[in-house]
Amino acid sequence: METHGVDVLPALTEVYGSLPDGARLTQLAGDASTRTYYRFETDGGQPRTLIVMHLPPDPLGSDEGGGEEVSELPFLSVQRLLASRGVPVPEIHAVDIPRRVVLLQDLGADTFFDVLHRTEAAGWGELYGRAIDLLADMHGACARPEAHVVYGRSFDRGLLRWELEHFRQWGLEALGVELAGDDRRAMDDCFDALVDCLLQDPQGFAHRDYQSRNLMVQPDGSLIVIDFQDALQGPRTYDLVALLCDSYVELPLPLQLQMLARYCERARIEVAHRDEFVRAFWRVAVQRKLKDAGRFVFIDQVRGNADFLQWFPRSIRYVARALAQLGDYGALEGVLQRVIPGFPDDVGVPRAQTGARAGTPLR
Fold first, then answer.
1. CA distances (Å), origin 90, targets 42, 87, 157, 252
2. pLDDT at position 322
3. How many CA atoms lie less than 13 Å away from 227 in the CB half-sphere?
4. Is 125 in the same domain as 99?
């Protein structure tokens, strides 16, 4: 069996006793993660397929900000928490940390993103309804704190501000945009005011990346949550923004509002508080989508993967939509109009640094 340089045999032996017949290991398409994934298949033994997660050399490290000291792989500890609360997550079959290998349940190849793009727009409401219901149920199930890393880390001021600076550094400066003094001060003031509001908004469990590529659709239509290792405490609307302002999907405003109303019903948010809940959603959308725009440039220039640059313009469009819904961040909107050509509807794809996908310069 070709192992692609991954020492997977000890973990497989733990599951199967010995290497079963017809064993095959195939590398899966990459994403923005520092982890590498493979599908293991066999003609004998159970289960017939597994997913091999190969961890990076520093598996406990993170370049997502808020990098606190941890003693256990967060993926493992968060998986146990979610499974114990009844959240559908992949089963873990074996763990071999010295060889940086984790064997996971194979959930198939259909992400929510894949199914969505095979579905007529008229059917999107039903699909998103399932994702919203699961999200509300997960938030409810994880509301009770315990002694766990998820309840010990949070979107504090430093992390929220780091994410906004991530946009300035990568979404502007790395693309050749230098902010004039007045614009920089105006952006700083708006960022500070935005973070102040986000810290005052209702807080709770946040998956941190609950979007269309992190939900696996099973043959019966049910959803299973993946990529949960960065979960923490944060604005209650954070996961809703990840799903309903998903950079990979052009979601119309009426459907966003419909799904926000559905979440409020499912999560039993009092009617008197729903308007402010929706405003909190749009505030988080400004912060999260600016961060995403910068992140896509970072993934190109630091990780060498330009595929995500194509989603930069949509992230900026979602920022503009959120600003329009809020109506009271005109100074930030003005800065973005001055420094991002085409803002908001005709923003170009930044030019790739890795050569994987050609784009256009931001300015």
1. 19, 10, 32, 31
2. 98
3. 19
4. no
- Residue 63 structural domain: 9-105
Low-confidence ranges of the chain (pLDDT < 70): 30, 32, 61-70, 355-363
CA-based angle 132:138:78, to the nearest 5?
A: 130
Asked if 293 contacts 344 with a C-beta cutoff of 8 angstroms, the reply is: no
- DSSP-derived secondary structure for 127-188: HHHHHHHHHHHHHHHT-S--SSHHHH-B--HHHHHHHHHHIIIIIIGGGT----HHHHHHHH
pLDDT, tens digit (0-9, with 9 covering 90-100), for 25-54: 999 986 767 889 999 999 988 999 999 999
| CATH number for 135 | 3.90.1200.10
- DSSP states along 220-241: TS-EEE---TT-EEEETTHHHH
C-alpha radius of gyration, the chain, whole number? 21
Q: Do the domain assignments include residue 351?
A: no
**Kind and range of the H or E element at 242?**
helix 238-244
User: Which of 234, 172, 184, 179 lies closest to 209 in space, CA to CA?
Assistant: 234
Is the domain of 91 the same as that of 118? no
Distance CA 43, CA 23 (A): 7
Tell me, yes or no, whether 185 lies in a domain.
Answer: yes
Q: For residue 17, give the CATH number of its domain.
A: 3.30.200.20
pTM above 0.85, yes or no: yes
Domain count, the chain: 2
